[in-house]
Design goal:
It contains no helices and 11 strands. By secondary structure, the protein is mainly β.
Length: 127
């Protein structure tokens, strides 16, 4: 059983920054790609970013490209999401997720490709 625990959410003004962390346990962390998703209020959950097990490749939603950075520290079994230049539309519950395969396929943006999820952390960006 894999456990994912997010932290680092909070309230920030527009233009500010936050760094989310997701601590993982339960399987060989470095073998699996990881992703971040978010669910804005009243909307469906959406893809934010993903990276391979080695962190050699990263992928982003167009809405966050150039502002967010996903990274991982396999020695700490932790994945991060550095969020800069935050906008009110970034307000959402952010979830980290573990990909179900050890290799990232082109459908990395689909929720069904992830088999474990954290409980979520709230990010609120005020204008």
């Amino acid at each position: 059983q894999v456990q994912l625990v997010e932290s680092g959410g909070g309230l920030v003004q527009a233009g500010g920054s936050l760094r989310l962390s997701c601590a993982a346990s339960g399987r060989t962390f470095s073998s699996y790609p990881m992703g971040w998703f978010r669910q804005p209020p009243g909307k469906e959950r959406e893809f934010v970013a993903a990276l391979t097990g080695s962190a050699g490749s990263t992928y982003y939603a167009d809405s966050v490209k150039g502002r967010f950075t996903i990274s991982r520290d396999n020695t700490k079994n932790t994945v991060y999401l550095q969020m800069n230049s935050l906008k009110p539309e970034d307000t959402a519950v952010y979830y980290c997720a573990a990909y179900k395969r050890t290799y990232l396929r082109t459908n990395y943006f689909r929720e069904k490709e992830y088999d474990y999820w954290g409980q979520g952390t709230q990010v609120t960006v005020s204008s």
